[in-house]
Amino acid sequence: MPYKYHILSQLHKYAGRDKVRLHMPGHKGRGEFARLFPQAKYDITELSFSDDLQDPSGAIAAAQSDIASIVGAKRAYITTDGSSSGVMACVYAASRIGKKLIVPRNSHKSVFNACRILGVEPVIVQGEEREGVLLPPDPDLISRLVAADVHIVGMIVTSPDYYGNIAPLDDYAAVLKPLGRYLFCDGAHGAHLFMEPDVYCGAHADMLVDGAHKTLPTLTQGAYVCVNDEDLFEYAEQALAMFRTTSPSYPIMASVEYGVKFIVNHPEIYYAASANVQKFLGEHSDFVFYPSDDWTKLAVDFKPLNISPALAQQKLEKRGIYAEMNDGRYLLFYLSPMTSALQLSALGNALMSVVSSKKLRDTYREIGGVIPPAPRTYSYLYALGAPSEWVPVKDSIGAMCAENAGVTPPCIPVVVAGEIITPRAAKLLQSGKSTFGLRDGKIKVVRR
Protein backbone atom coordinates (compact mmCIF):
# COMPACT_ATOMS: atom_id res chain seq x y z
CA MET A 1 0.00 0.00 0.00
CA PRO A 2 1.66 3.27 -1.09
CA TYR A 3 2.27 5.92 1.54
CA LYS A 4 -0.10 8.90 1.40
CA TYR A 5 1.19 12.48 1.15
CA HIS A 6 -0.60 13.99 4.15
CA ILE A 7 0.64 17.59 3.97
CA LEU A 8 0.40 17.86 0.20
CA SER A 9 -3.18 16.55 0.30
CA GLN A 10 -4.18 19.37 2.66
CA LEU A 11 -2.56 21.96 0.40
CA HIS A 12 -4.38 20.59 -2.64
CA LYS A 13 -7.71 20.83 -0.81
CA TYR A 14 -7.11 24.44 0.14
CA ALA A 15 -5.86 25.47 -3.31
CA GLY A 16 -9.04 24.12 -4.87
CA ARG A 17 -11.41 26.13 -2.73
CA ASP A 18 -12.97 29.54 -3.30
CA LYS A 19 -11.64 31.57 -0.39
CA VAL A 20 -10.73 35.01 0.86
CA ARG A 21 -7.13 34.85 2.10
CA LEU A 22 -7.10 37.16 5.12
CA HIS A 23 -4.05 35.47 6.61
CA MET A 24 -0.31 35.43 5.98
CA PRO A 25 1.62 35.47 3.67
CA GLY A 26 1.18 38.90 2.20
CA HIS A 27 1.07 37.92 -1.47
CA LYS A 28 -2.47 36.53 -0.89
CA GLY A 29 -2.06 34.25 -3.90
CA ARG A 30 -3.17 37.08 -6.19
CA GLY A 31 -2.05 39.39 -8.96
CA GLU A 32 1.26 39.38 -10.77
CA PHE A 33 2.89 37.44 -7.92
CA ALA A 34 0.58 34.49 -8.46
CA ARG A 35 1.28 34.59 -12.20
CA LEU A 36 5.05 34.68 -11.69
CA PHE A 37 4.99 32.14 -8.84
CA PRO A 38 2.30 29.56 -9.70
CA GLN A 39 2.93 27.65 -6.46
CA ALA A 40 1.68 30.64 -4.45
CA LYS A 41 -1.69 28.96 -4.07
CA TYR A 42 -0.05 26.33 -1.84
CA ASP A 43 1.84 28.87 0.26
CA ILE A 44 -0.18 29.17 3.45
CA THR A 45 0.28 29.59 7.19
CA GLU A 46 -1.04 27.78 10.26
CA LEU A 47 -4.79 27.54 9.70
CA SER A 48 -7.55 25.52 11.33
CA PHE A 49 -6.90 22.52 9.06
CA SER A 50 -3.21 22.83 8.14
CA ASP A 51 -1.61 21.80 11.46
CA ASP A 52 1.28 23.56 13.22
CA LEU A 53 4.92 22.46 12.99
CA GLN A 54 5.57 23.82 16.50
CA ASP A 55 2.89 21.55 18.01
CA PRO A 56 1.74 19.09 15.36
CA SER A 57 -1.34 16.96 15.81
CA GLY A 58 -2.73 16.56 12.27
CA ALA A 59 -1.17 16.21 8.82
CA ILE A 60 2.31 17.26 9.95
CA ALA A 61 2.26 14.84 12.88
CA ALA A 62 1.19 12.03 10.55
CA ALA A 63 3.93 12.94 8.06
CA GLN A 64 6.63 12.97 10.74
CA SER A 65 5.44 9.66 12.16
CA ASP A 66 5.59 8.07 8.70
CA ILE A 67 9.08 9.47 8.04
CA ALA A 68 10.34 8.04 11.34
CA SER A 69 8.85 4.65 10.46
CA ILE A 70 10.35 4.66 6.96
CA VAL A 71 13.91 5.58 7.96
CA GLY A 72 13.85 3.47 11.13
CA ALA A 73 13.99 6.28 13.71
CA LYS A 74 12.11 6.57 16.97
CA ARG A 75 11.12 10.16 16.17
CA ALA A 76 11.47 12.47 13.17
CA TYR A 77 11.03 16.23 12.95
CA ILE A 78 10.64 18.17 9.70
CA THR A 79 12.58 21.41 9.34
CA THR A 80 12.36 24.01 6.58
CA ASP A 81 15.64 25.68 7.61
CA GLY A 82 17.98 23.29 5.84
CA SER A 83 20.33 20.86 7.50
CA SER A 84 22.06 23.63 9.45
CA SER A 85 19.19 23.92 11.94
CA GLY A 86 19.41 20.16 12.46
CA VAL A 87 23.14 20.40 13.09
CA MET A 88 22.41 23.15 15.60
CA ALA A 89 19.89 20.85 17.31
CA CYS A 90 22.46 18.05 17.55
CA VAL A 91 25.10 20.30 19.10
CA TYR A 92 22.50 21.80 21.43
CA ALA A 93 21.64 18.31 22.68
CA ALA A 94 25.34 17.66 23.26
CA SER A 95 25.71 20.98 25.11
CA ARG A 96 23.02 19.98 27.61
CA ILE A 97 25.14 16.99 28.62
CA GLY A 98 28.70 18.40 28.49
CA LYS A 99 30.95 20.97 26.87
CA LYS A 100 33.31 19.00 24.63
CA LEU A 101 32.48 17.26 21.36
CA ILE A 102 34.75 15.44 18.91
CA VAL A 103 34.53 17.20 15.55
CA PRO A 104 36.32 15.90 12.43
CA ARG A 105 38.37 18.54 10.62
CA ASN A 106 36.29 18.30 7.44
CA SER A 107 32.99 19.15 9.16
CA HIS A 108 30.64 21.72 7.65
CA LYS A 109 30.95 25.26 8.94
CA SER A 110 27.53 24.92 10.60
CA VAL A 111 29.06 22.45 13.09
CA PHE A 112 31.74 24.94 14.12
CA ASN A 113 29.18 27.76 14.21
CA ALA A 114 26.96 25.71 16.50
CA CYS A 115 29.88 25.00 18.82
CA ARG A 116 30.63 28.72 18.94
CA ILE A 117 27.06 29.77 19.70
CA LEU A 118 26.47 27.05 22.28
CA GLY A 119 29.84 27.24 24.02
CA VAL A 120 30.94 23.73 23.08
CA GLU A 121 34.68 23.17 22.64
CA PRO A 122 35.29 21.09 19.50
CA VAL A 123 37.97 18.45 19.94
CA ILE A 124 39.16 18.62 16.33
CA VAL A 125 40.47 15.45 14.72
CA GLN A 126 41.76 14.83 11.23
CA GLY A 127 41.65 11.63 9.23
CA GLU A 128 44.03 10.39 6.55
CA GLU A 129 44.08 11.76 3.01
CA ARG A 130 42.97 9.78 -0.03
CA GLU A 131 43.50 11.29 -3.48
CA GLY A 132 43.36 14.84 -2.15
CA VAL A 133 40.31 14.32 0.08
CA LEU A 134 40.14 13.93 3.85
CA LEU A 135 38.79 10.62 5.12
CA PRO A 136 36.85 10.12 8.36
CA PRO A 137 39.11 9.77 11.42
CA ASP A 138 40.24 6.35 12.60
CA PRO A 139 38.00 4.79 15.27
CA ASP A 140 41.11 3.99 17.36
CA LEU A 141 41.79 7.74 17.65
CA ILE A 142 38.22 8.32 18.83
CA SER A 143 38.63 5.53 21.37
CA ARG A 144 41.81 7.08 22.80
CA LEU A 145 40.25 10.54 23.04
CA VAL A 146 37.10 9.50 24.88
CA ALA A 147 39.02 7.21 27.20
CA ALA A 148 41.33 10.08 28.18
CA ASP A 149 38.71 12.80 28.72
CA VAL A 150 35.47 12.26 30.65
CA HIS A 151 34.24 15.70 29.55
CA ILE A 152 33.82 14.60 25.92
CA VAL A 153 30.09 14.10 25.32
CA GLY A 154 30.57 12.19 22.10
CA MET A 155 31.18 12.86 18.43
CA ILE A 156 29.45 14.54 15.52
CA VAL A 157 30.48 13.13 12.16
CA THR A 158 29.58 13.89 8.56
CA SER A 159 28.51 10.79 6.65
CA PRO A 160 28.55 10.73 3.72
CA ASP A 161 30.69 13.76 3.02
CA TYR A 162 30.64 15.89 -0.14
CA TYR A 163 32.73 13.31 -1.99
CA GLY A 164 30.73 10.31 -0.81
CA ASN A 165 33.06 8.99 1.88
CA ILE A 166 30.99 7.04 4.40
CA ALA A 167 32.31 7.02 7.95
CA PRO A 168 32.83 3.77 9.92
CA LEU A 169 29.70 4.51 11.93
CA ASP A 170 29.39 1.04 13.42
CA ASP A 171 32.94 1.28 14.78
CA TYR A 172 32.31 4.75 16.21
CA ALA A 173 29.14 3.52 17.90
CA ALA A 174 30.99 0.52 19.33
CA VAL A 175 33.54 2.89 20.87
CA LEU A 176 31.15 5.55 22.16
CA LYS A 177 28.04 3.81 23.40
CA PRO A 178 29.60 1.42 25.98
CA LEU A 179 31.15 4.52 27.59
CA GLY A 180 27.84 6.39 27.68
CA ARG A 181 28.89 8.82 24.94
CA TYR A 182 26.70 9.87 22.02
CA LEU A 183 27.06 9.63 18.26
CA PHE A 184 25.56 12.57 16.38
CA CYS A 185 25.56 12.59 12.60
CA ASP A 186 25.39 15.27 9.95
CA GLY A 187 23.83 13.11 7.27
CA ALA A 188 22.89 16.09 5.10
CA HIS A 189 24.38 14.52 1.98
CA GLY A 190 22.88 11.07 2.45
CA ALA A 191 19.13 11.32 2.98
CA HIS A 192 18.64 8.75 0.20
CA LEU A 193 20.71 6.14 2.04
CA PHE A 194 17.84 4.97 4.22
CA MET A 195 17.28 2.72 1.20
CA GLU A 196 20.66 1.12 2.02
CA PRO A 197 20.59 0.52 5.80
CA ASP A 198 24.14 -0.88 5.96
CA VAL A 199 25.60 2.56 5.20
CA TYR A 200 22.82 4.84 6.48
CA CYS A 201 23.89 6.97 9.43
CA GLY A 202 20.47 6.54 11.05
CA ALA A 203 21.29 2.89 11.70
CA HIS A 204 23.95 3.90 14.24
CA ALA A 205 23.51 7.54 15.28
CA ASP A 206 21.70 8.60 18.45
CA MET A 207 20.61 11.81 16.70
CA LEU A 208 21.07 12.97 13.13
CA VAL A 209 19.92 15.34 10.43
CA ASP A 210 19.07 14.31 6.86
CA GLY A 211 19.15 17.01 4.17
CA ALA A 212 16.26 15.73 2.08
CA HIS A 213 16.65 18.49 -0.50
CA LYS A 214 20.20 17.44 -1.40
CA THR A 215 19.48 13.98 -2.81
CA LEU A 216 15.71 13.47 -2.72
CA PRO A 217 12.94 15.12 -4.80
CA THR A 218 12.47 17.86 -2.21
CA LEU A 219 12.52 21.66 -2.35
CA THR A 220 15.66 23.47 -1.22
CA GLN A 221 15.87 23.89 2.58
CA GLY A 222 13.79 20.78 3.23
CA ALA A 223 15.33 18.52 5.88
CA TYR A 224 14.43 16.44 8.92
CA VAL A 225 15.99 15.55 12.25
CA CYS A 226 15.82 12.00 13.60
CA VAL A 227 16.33 10.87 17.20
CA ASN A 228 16.97 7.29 18.25
CA ASP A 229 17.96 7.76 21.90
CA GLU A 230 15.00 8.54 24.16
CA ASP A 231 17.21 10.57 26.50
CA LEU A 232 17.66 13.10 23.68
CA PHE A 233 13.97 13.61 22.82
CA GLU A 234 13.51 16.57 25.16
CA TYR A 235 16.74 18.28 24.08
CA ALA A 236 15.91 17.81 20.40
CA GLU A 237 12.48 19.38 20.84
CA GLN A 238 13.90 22.26 22.89
CA ALA A 239 16.47 22.94 20.19
CA LEU A 240 14.03 22.81 17.30
CA ALA A 241 11.63 25.11 19.16
CA MET A 242 14.45 27.66 19.36
CA PHE A 243 16.24 27.25 16.05
CA ARG A 244 13.49 26.48 13.54
CA THR A 245 11.48 29.33 12.06
CA THR A 246 8.00 29.92 13.50
CA SER A 247 6.80 30.57 9.93
CA PRO A 248 7.72 27.36 8.12
CA SER A 249 7.05 26.99 4.42
CA TYR A 250 4.21 24.55 3.86
CA PRO A 251 5.35 23.72 0.31
CA ILE A 252 8.79 22.85 1.70
CA MET A 253 7.29 20.73 4.48
CA ALA A 254 5.08 18.93 1.96
CA SER A 255 8.09 18.31 -0.27
CA VAL A 256 10.10 16.76 2.58
CA GLU A 257 7.35 14.24 3.18
CA TYR A 258 7.00 13.73 -0.57
CA GLY A 259 10.73 13.17 -1.11
CA VAL A 260 11.00 10.40 1.46
CA LYS A 261 7.76 8.68 0.48
CA PHE A 262 8.24 8.97 -3.27
CA ILE A 263 11.37 6.83 -3.09
CA VAL A 264 9.62 4.23 -0.93
CA ASN A 265 6.55 4.25 -3.17
CA HIS A 266 8.74 3.89 -6.28
CA PRO A 267 11.87 1.93 -5.29
CA GLU A 268 12.40 0.88 -8.88
CA ILE A 269 13.32 4.48 -9.71
CA TYR A 270 15.98 4.50 -6.98
CA TYR A 271 17.60 1.23 -8.04
CA ALA A 272 17.44 2.07 -11.74
CA ALA A 273 19.24 5.37 -11.13
CA SER A 274 21.93 3.60 -9.08
CA ALA A 275 22.38 0.99 -11.83
CA ASN A 276 22.63 3.72 -14.48
CA VAL A 277 25.49 5.33 -12.57
CA GLN A 278 27.37 2.02 -12.36
CA LYS A 279 26.86 1.56 -16.09
CA PHE A 280 28.15 5.09 -16.71
CA LEU A 281 31.31 4.40 -14.71
CA GLY A 282 31.92 1.22 -16.67
CA GLU A 283 31.46 2.98 -20.01
CA HIS A 284 33.87 5.79 -19.09
CA SER A 285 36.74 3.88 -17.53
CA ASP A 286 39.22 6.17 -19.31
CA PHE A 287 38.37 8.83 -16.73
CA VAL A 288 39.57 8.74 -13.16
CA PHE A 289 36.77 9.08 -10.63
CA TYR A 290 37.16 9.63 -6.92
CA PRO A 291 36.45 6.25 -5.24
CA SER A 292 33.18 7.29 -3.65
CA ASP A 293 31.20 5.03 -1.34
CA ASP A 294 27.98 6.74 -2.43
CA TRP A 295 26.68 6.39 -5.97
CA THR A 296 25.15 9.90 -5.96
CA LYS A 297 28.59 11.55 -5.79
CA LEU A 298 30.40 11.51 -9.13
CA ALA A 299 33.75 13.33 -8.88
CA VAL A 300 35.91 13.47 -12.03
CA ASP A 301 39.63 13.88 -11.31
CA PHE A 302 41.17 16.40 -13.72
CA LYS A 303 44.69 16.07 -12.36
CA PRO A 304 45.60 12.99 -14.45
CA LEU A 305 43.94 14.67 -17.46
CA ASN A 306 46.19 17.72 -16.95
CA ILE A 307 43.16 19.92 -17.60
CA SER A 308 41.96 22.83 -15.49
CA PRO A 309 38.64 21.84 -13.90
CA ALA A 310 37.64 25.51 -13.94
CA LEU A 311 38.09 25.69 -17.72
CA ALA A 312 36.39 22.32 -18.12
CA GLN A 313 33.48 23.61 -16.04
CA GLN A 314 33.10 26.61 -18.34
CA LYS A 315 33.04 24.37 -21.41
CA LEU A 316 30.49 22.05 -19.84
CA GLU A 317 28.22 24.94 -18.88
CA LYS A 318 28.21 26.14 -22.49
CA ARG A 319 26.72 22.74 -23.28
CA GLY A 320 24.15 23.08 -20.51
CA ILE A 321 25.93 20.74 -18.05
CA TYR A 322 26.19 22.22 -14.54
CA ALA A 323 28.35 20.63 -11.85
CA GLU A 324 27.83 20.99 -8.10
CA MET A 325 31.38 22.03 -7.30
CA ASN A 326 34.88 22.65 -8.62
CA ASP A 327 37.49 22.30 -5.87
CA GLY A 328 40.56 22.90 -8.02
CA ARG A 329 41.08 19.21 -8.79
CA TYR A 330 37.69 17.54 -9.03
CA LEU A 331 34.47 18.47 -10.73
CA LEU A 332 31.79 17.02 -8.51
CA PHE A 333 28.51 16.04 -10.14
CA TYR A 334 25.74 15.61 -7.61
CA LEU A 335 23.29 12.91 -8.64
CA SER A 336 20.04 11.61 -7.16
CA PRO A 337 17.36 9.01 -7.82
CA MET A 338 15.89 11.58 -10.19
CA THR A 339 18.99 11.62 -12.42
CA SER A 340 18.08 10.01 -15.74
CA ALA A 341 20.10 7.81 -18.06
CA LEU A 342 19.69 10.52 -20.70
CA GLN A 343 21.31 13.10 -18.44
CA LEU A 344 24.22 10.78 -17.73
CA SER A 345 24.66 10.19 -21.44
CA ALA A 346 24.77 13.95 -22.02
CA LEU A 347 27.41 14.27 -19.28
CA GLY A 348 29.51 11.52 -20.83
CA ASN A 349 29.43 13.13 -24.27
CA ALA A 350 30.29 16.53 -22.80
CA LEU A 351 33.24 15.12 -20.85
CA MET A 352 34.59 13.48 -24.00
CA SER A 353 34.37 16.86 -25.70
CA VAL A 354 36.38 18.43 -22.88
CA VAL A 355 39.13 15.82 -23.11
CA SER A 356 39.42 16.22 -26.88
CA SER A 357 39.81 20.01 -26.69
CA LYS A 358 43.37 21.02 -27.61
CA LYS A 359 42.87 24.41 -25.93
CA LEU A 360 42.45 22.75 -22.55
CA ARG A 361 45.56 20.58 -22.63
CA ASP A 362 48.28 21.28 -20.03
CA THR A 363 46.10 23.80 -18.16
CA TYR A 364 45.97 22.01 -14.80
CA ARG A 365 47.50 23.90 -11.85
CA GLU A 366 47.68 22.49 -8.33
CA ILE A 367 45.80 24.86 -6.01
CA GLY A 368 43.63 22.74 -3.75
CA GLY A 369 44.32 19.70 -1.66
CA VAL A 370 44.15 18.79 1.99
CA ILE A 371 45.52 21.26 4.51
CA PRO A 372 47.85 19.42 6.92
CA PRO A 373 47.00 19.72 10.63
CA ALA A 374 48.10 23.17 11.78
CA PRO A 375 49.70 23.86 15.16
CA ARG A 376 47.38 25.22 17.82
CA THR A 377 48.19 27.16 20.99
CA TYR A 378 44.74 28.38 21.99
CA SER A 379 41.49 26.50 22.20
CA TYR A 380 38.80 27.18 19.60
CA LEU A 381 36.53 29.10 21.94
CA TYR A 382 39.40 31.11 23.44
CA ALA A 383 40.72 32.15 20.04
CA LEU A 384 37.25 33.34 19.00
CA GLY A 385 37.16 35.72 21.97
CA ALA A 386 40.80 36.82 22.02
CA PRO A 387 41.84 40.39 21.02
CA SER A 388 41.99 40.37 17.25
CA GLU A 389 42.57 42.36 14.09
CA TRP A 390 41.91 42.07 10.35
CA VAL A 391 44.95 41.66 8.11
CA PRO A 392 45.37 40.90 4.38
CA VAL A 393 45.41 37.15 3.79
CA LYS A 394 48.83 37.43 2.14
CA ASP A 395 50.23 38.94 5.35
CA SER A 396 48.53 36.48 7.72
CA ILE A 397 50.94 33.54 7.39
CA GLY A 398 52.20 32.52 10.79
CA ALA A 399 49.42 34.33 12.64
CA MET A 400 46.73 32.58 14.64
CA CYS A 401 43.28 32.57 13.08
CA ALA A 402 40.52 34.21 15.13
CA GLU A 403 37.61 33.46 12.78
CA ASN A 404 36.88 30.35 10.71
CA ALA A 405 37.55 30.92 7.03
CA GLY A 406 37.04 28.67 4.04
CA VAL A 407 35.82 28.17 0.51
CA THR A 408 32.22 27.55 -0.47
CA PRO A 409 31.17 25.06 -1.60
CA PRO A 410 31.87 22.79 0.24
CA CYS A 411 31.66 25.21 3.23
CA ILE A 412 34.43 23.41 5.13
CA PRO A 413 36.89 25.69 6.97
CA VAL A 414 40.32 25.94 5.40
CA VAL A 415 41.53 27.34 8.71
CA VAL A 416 39.78 27.12 12.08
CA ALA A 417 39.98 29.61 14.93
CA GLY A 418 43.01 28.79 17.08
CA GLU A 419 45.06 27.35 14.20
CA ILE A 420 48.18 28.91 12.73
CA ILE A 421 47.64 30.13 9.16
CA THR A 422 50.02 28.28 6.85
CA PRO A 423 51.23 29.37 3.38
CA ARG A 424 49.12 26.62 1.83
CA ALA A 425 45.99 27.73 3.67
CA ALA A 426 46.55 31.35 2.67
CA LYS A 427 47.02 30.34 -0.98
CA LEU A 428 43.83 28.30 -1.01
CA LEU A 429 41.81 31.14 0.54
CA GLN A 430 43.20 33.63 -1.98
CA SER A 431 42.36 31.34 -4.91
CA GLY A 432 38.79 30.64 -3.77
CA LYS A 433 36.07 32.13 -5.96
CA SER A 434 33.54 32.19 -3.11
CA THR A 435 34.71 32.27 0.49
CA PHE A 436 33.42 32.76 4.01
CA GLY A 437 35.17 34.35 6.99
CA LEU A 438 37.03 36.90 4.87
CA ARG A 439 36.33 40.61 4.58
CA ASP A 440 37.65 42.61 1.61
CA GLY A 441 40.57 40.20 1.19
CA LYS A 442 41.39 40.25 4.89
CA ILE A 443 41.25 37.55 7.57
CA LYS A 444 40.71 37.95 11.31
CA VAL A 445 43.74 36.93 13.40
CA VAL A 446 44.63 36.97 17.08
CA ARG A 447 46.46 40.23 17.77
CA ARG A 448 50.19 39.65 18.25
UniProtKB/TrEMBL annotation:
Residues 9-263 form the Orn/Lys/Arg decarboxylases family 1 pyridoxal-P attachment site domain. Keywords: Aminotransferase, Pyridoxal phosphate, Transferase. Pfam families: OKR_DC_1. InterPro entries: Orn/Lys/Arg_deCO2ase_major_dom, Orn_Lys_Arg_decarboxylase-I, PyrdxlP-dep_Trfase, PyrdxlP-dep_Trfase_major. The keyword Transferase applies. The keyword Transferase applies. Its cofactor is pyridoxal 5'-phosphate. GO terms for molecular function: transaminase activity. It comes from the Bacteria. This is DegT/DnrJ/EryC1/StrS family aminotransferase.
